[in-house]
Every structure is written in C-alpha cells, then in structure tokens.
Write a sequence for this structure.
C-alpha cells in the first residue's frame, strides 16, 4: 500500500532546513547565517551609528561646494580632523552624492561601499576558482566583515570598498589580457586616490603597455573635465599636495610616522626603511625570475607585496588600507602560496583584527601594543614573504635545481610510477 503525501506535508517538507551530510556542508550551513548577519550588523548598525571619526563629512562638503561653484581646497591642516584630500578628478566623480541631503547621502555611500566589498569578494572567489556554494564563500564574507578594515571603512564612511573592487577588477582583467579595461579599472581609483598606483609596476614589468593608455588616460581626462567646473582646482596643488607630502605623527602606522610619534633617531628610521626596502626588492626579484609564468600567483603575491611596502615605507599608512591585501590573503588556497604558515596569519591579525589592545590598568603598555601592532603586522608579512622565497631559493640552489624553479619538492614531485612485479604480472595474466 502506498501513501500519497498531502500538499500541506509536501510544502512543509520543502521548508525543512537542509541537513549537512558532509563536514563541508555542515560548515557551509553554519557559516552563512553568521556571515550574513555580521555583514548586516556592520552596515545598518555600526556604520549607521557612525563614529567620532567621520571621513564622509569633508567629502560631502567638497561635493556640495563643487556643485554650488564654491572653493573646495580650504582645509585647515593644523587640526587632526579628517580633511578633504581628493584631486579635482576625484571631486568630479563624487560630486553627484551631494544631490541628496547629508544623512541620506551618507547612507547611500555606506551602501555603495558595502556592495563593492561583497562584489570584490565574489570576484576573488572566481579569481581563485572557488564556488559560491563552497564553504569558502561564507568563510570569506564572515572574515572580511569581521576585520577592522571593512568595519571602519563603513563606520568612518570612506571609499576603500570601491578601491578594493577596482583592485580586484584590475587583477582579474590583467590576468585575462583585457589590458585597456584593466587600465580603466585602476585609472578610476587613481583619479580619486593614488593608493593602488604601485600596482602599475605589474603591467610595467610584464610589458603590457596598453594598460597605461587607460590607467593614465582616465584620470587625465577626468582632470581636464573637472578644471573648468571647479572654482579653485589649482589650490589642490598649492594647498593640499604639500600636506600630502608631509609625514604626520597621528593616525599613521608607517615606519616614519611611528618614528615621528615616538621620537626615534632619524638614522634608525632610515635604517629600518632601508632594510625592509631591500627585503621587498629581493622578494620582487625572486617572484619575477621564478614565478612570472605562474601568473595568478605572481600577480596577487607581487601586488600584495608592493601595496604593503607602500603602506609601511611611504609617509602615510593607515590600518584600513589593509583591505587592499585581501587578494594576497586569498592566495592561501594556492599550493605554493607564501601565506601557508602561522607567522603570515599572526601578521594578518596585526593589521586586520578589530580587537583593541588598550589596557586600562597599564595605559602606556596598552597604547604601545595598539599603536604598533599594525606596523608590526605589515613588517612581519614582508619578512614572511622574504623568508619563504629566499628559503625556497637557497634550498633549490643547494639541490642544484634552480633551472626548474624554486618551488619545494612536495609541490613539484610527481607520484612515482610503480612497476608491477613479475609475480603480480603473472597472476594478472592467469586471471584473464
């Protein structure tokens, strides 16, 4: 006797939560609600609530001044409040935001950057051949929205989310040989902020000249369009650029910034910068010589190294710049990744964690931990990349196999081909 399932029972069965049959499925089902609610919390609770640090207010005021034909570059750089630092090309791009009132404009800006981060994470999954249905998708979403860099990008309401999307698009299009489009992607970001400009070394060494047509052309065209529309475009050069070239001793995690804050000797600061610059140069040389044919590994590793070096060694490095290192961190899924060791993730904790290390009972000790952990994290990731690559090189040299690359044996060795014994062969012949 067979029983037919009633329509009500069938509907309830369809609504029944799926039960994971494998460890990966269980983790996927567990992580998705946690990841989604964490992201929603960052967007509609923490970001909407805001913070005393407000990066959006000067941007909105500049956009409003631009639309109303008023002077833009009038900031008082003697204060430590956020300043408007975008060039005329960036002003042109962000000007439409001032059509709305300040509150709605801020909410829209938060939403755009949140969507940009999610889109960038999706493209990163595709870049590394990972599916949205895999456990990697919710894990990456949860990890990203738990970091200081994503959280404070939304809370402070700045443009880093869109910069991350531009970076991932640039890398993806570069790897797909879409040179003009890759240049346009990074050119749009440079028109606003030069944060990603060091990545142009990648197409330069790969002799992909067409990238530079749009990478340079897009900001130049936007600047030419903005000049007649702005009241004081050249004040950016005379008033803002000198400030950008200075080293400030607050909200600055670069070596020179911390050196200024703690009053370190100039010789020590110069020496530290020279040592880390040498490690970066050696690492880039090894990447170019031995990994340029492994394009995905080369682009994300060399690109991440160039960016972290610019954060640490230039005049200004802020913690939430670390979002641009997401492609480097995602490279951990590659078998020859430089991120497959615990010191690399100790470094990542330093520059990504939302934890506060301010200790109320020991304020000086706590401030030192809190202010220096980003600098230590960036420094350690450079040391890790240098140590991994130099270690591989020295091992390959000792084993006289530099001509075949420097990947360790466990990555390059093929499974041995077993030759059947005479007894096994004879037994197989009898069986057949």
């Amino acid at each position: 006797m067979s029983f037919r399932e009633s329509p009500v029972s069938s509907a309830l069965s369809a609504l029944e939560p799926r039960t994971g049959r494998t460890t990966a499925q269980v983790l996927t089902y567990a992580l998705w609600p946690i990841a989604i609610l964490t992201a929603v919390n960052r967007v509609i609770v923490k970001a909407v609530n805001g913070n005393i640090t407000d990066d959006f207010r000067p941007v909105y005021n500049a956009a409003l001044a631009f639309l109303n034909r008023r002077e833009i570059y009038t900031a008082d750089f003697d204060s430590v409040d956020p300043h408007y630092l975008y060039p005329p090309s960036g002003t042109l791009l962000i000007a439409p935001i001032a059509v709305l009132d300040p509150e709605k404009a801020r909410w829209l800006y938060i939403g755009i950057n949140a969507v940009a981060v999610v889109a960038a994470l999706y493209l990163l999954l595709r870049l590394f051949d990972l599916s949205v249905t895999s456990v990697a998708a919710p894990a990456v979403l949860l990890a990203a929205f738990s970091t200081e860099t994503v959280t404070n990008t939304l809370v402070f309401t700045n443009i880093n989310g869109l910069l991350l999307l531009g970076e991932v698009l640039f890398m993806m299009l570069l790897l797909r040989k879409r040179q003009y489009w890759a240049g346009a992607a990074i050119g749009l970001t440079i028109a606003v902020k030069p944060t990603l400009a060091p990545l142009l070394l990648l197409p330069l060494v790969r002799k992909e000249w067409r990238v530079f047509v749009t990478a340079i052309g897009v900001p130049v065209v936007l600047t030419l369009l903005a000049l007649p529309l702005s009241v004081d475009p050249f004040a950016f050069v005379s008033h803002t650029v000198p400030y950008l070239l200075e080293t400030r001793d607050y909200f600055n995690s670069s070596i020179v910034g911390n050196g200024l804050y703690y009053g370190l000797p100039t010789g020590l600061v110069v020496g530290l910068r020279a040592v880390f610059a040498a490690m970066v140069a050696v690492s880039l040389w090894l990447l170019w010589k031995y990994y340029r044919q492994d394009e995905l590994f080369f682009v994300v590793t060399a690109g991440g190294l160039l960016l972290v070096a610019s954060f640490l060694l230039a005049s200004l490095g802020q913690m939430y710049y670390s979002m641009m290192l997401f492609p480097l961190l995602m490279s951990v899924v590659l078998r020859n990744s430089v991120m497959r060791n615990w010191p690399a993730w100790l470094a990542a904790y330093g520059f990504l964690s939302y934890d506060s290390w301010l200790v109320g009972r020991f304020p000086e000790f706590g401030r030192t931990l809190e202010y220096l952990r980003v600098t230590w994290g960036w420094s350690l990731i450079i040391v890790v990349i240098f140590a991994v690559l130099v270690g591989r090189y020295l091992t390959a040299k000792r084993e006289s196999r530099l001509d075949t690359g420097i990947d360790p044996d466990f990555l390059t060795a093929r499974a041995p081909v077993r030759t059947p014994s005479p007894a096994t062969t004879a037994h197989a012949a009898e069986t057949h």
Observations:
- The longest helix spans residues 363-398.
- The mean pLDDT is 90.
